[in-house]
Amino acid sequence: MITSVLPTYNRAPLTFVKGEGAWLIEADGRRFLDLGAGIAVNALGHAHPALTEALTTQANALWHTSNLYHIPQQQALADKLVDATFADTVFFTNSGTEACELAVKMARKFWFDKGEPDKVDIITFTGSFHGRSSAGIAAAGSEKMTKGFGPLLPGFTNLAFGDHDAVAAAITDQTAAILIEPVQGEGGIIPVPDQCLKGLRDLCDTHGILLIFDEVQCGVGRTGKLFAHEWAGVTPDIMMVAKGIGGGFPLGCVLATENAASGMTAGTHGSTYGGNPLGCAVGCAVLDIVADPAFLADVNRRAGLLRQKLEGLIAAHPDVFDLVRGSGLMMGIKCKVPCGDVVAAGYAQEVITVPAADNTIRLLPPLNISDDEIAAAVDRLDAAAQALAS
Ligand SMILES: *Cc1c(COP(=O)(O)O)cnc(C)c1O
After folding, report:
1. 217 ligand 1 Cβ < 6 A
2. Whose alpha carbon is nearest atom 10 of ligand 1?
3. Is the pLDDT of residue 161 over 90?
4. Looking at residue 162, what is its pLDDT?
5. Does ligand 1 lie within 6 Å of residue 130's CB atom?
6. pLDDT digit string (tens) for 292-302?
7. CA distances to 32, 40, 342, 349, 372 from 376, in Å
8. Of the candidates 256, 286, 241, 262, which has an alpha carbon nearest to the alpha carbon of residue 86?
9. In angstroms, what is the span from residue 130 Cα to ligand 1's centroid?
10. Is the N or the C terminus of the chain less surrounded, counting Cβ atoms within 10 Å?
11. What domains lie within the chain, and their CATH numbers?
C-alpha cells in the first residue's frame, strides 16, 4: 500500500525535532553535527536569532498580500542583491527549479523580442542539476531524472563537462544561452575551473549569446565569496539563486542584467508566493550577515581549516576515501567504498553528510560553524571511517 507521503524519497531512519546552530537534535535526544545544512540551505545554521527575529516580526505584521501590490521587504531584498552583484533586476521565486523556469523563459524571450524567435536552444552540461521541474530535468538531461517523463521540453543541448572545444562547436544560429553551475553540487562537488568560466564568458560574448549561472547551491557565501563566479572574475547575464538565500525559509530568485531581462515586461511572468513578505524579510536578514566582507573572510578561514583536516582524514583512511575537492565550505570527498555506506556510518557517529553523484559525500556545513565544531565533525568522520574499515 502506498504511504500517505508520496514515496519519492528513500529516507534515512532519522527524525530531527530541533536545531541549534550546527546541531540537529533527534527525537531520541541524540545530537548530530550537521554538515549537510539541509543541502546548503541553512546557511547560518538552525534557529539563528537574527533570522528567527526577522521571521517572527514579519509573521506578526503581515504574511501575504500579492504581487499585485508593492511589497517593501521584496523591494529591500532586490535592492540589496542589485547592490551586491552584477545584476540590475531580480525576480523572486520559492525554489531553485522555479528560478530555472524563469531563466529559460527569460533567455528565450530576450531573443524573441530581438526578432530572432529561432534562438531557443540552451547548452547545458552532463552531471548538472537544475531542479525537478520540466525545464530543470530537460536542462540537466540525465536519464535518472528524465526517464518516463517525456516528452521533454525541447531546446537543450547537453554536452560533456569540461570540453571547451565541444562547447564552441555546439553553438549554432539557434543557440540562445549557455547554462552552467560554477560548482556542480549534485554532480559531486565539481568546481568549474576559473579559466573555463572565463572561456564560456568569452564564447558568449563572441557569439552574442547569454550566459546563465546556476548558483542555487554554490551561491550565498558558500564558496567564500558572496557568489561563486566572483572567484573567476566574470559575471553572467542571468543567475539562479535559492537554497542559502532563505536560510531555511523557501526562497529563490533570478538575477539579471537590464539587457538580459529586457523581454520580461508586465504580464510576461508571475508567481503567487514568490517574493512574499515572510521569505523576503528572512532573505534580507541572511544577506545582511553573509554579504559582510568580514563574515566572508571568516568563511574562507574556516574553509581552510576544514580542508586541512579533510586532507588529514583522507591520508589516514586511504582505503575509504579517495580525494577531497570543492570550494570554500562546499566540499566533496570522493569515496572508495560506496558513498552511501560512508553517510550511514556517519549517522552512527552522529554526523550528517549528504551523498552526491560520482560516489562523493558532500560537506555543506552552516557557514558560521565554529572551529571546534569543524574539529569535532572531522573526528566523527574519522570514527565513521574506522568503523567502515574494521
Ligand atoms: C537544489 C538545486 C536546484 C533546485 O532547487 P529546488 O529548490 O530544489 O527546486 C537547482 N539547481 C541547483 C544547482 C541545485 O543545487
Report:
1. yes
2. 130
3. no
4. 85
5. yes
6. 999 999 999 99
7. 11, 20, 17, 11, 6
8. 256
9. 5
10. N
11. 16-34+294-389 (3.90.1150.10), 50-290 (3.40.640.10)
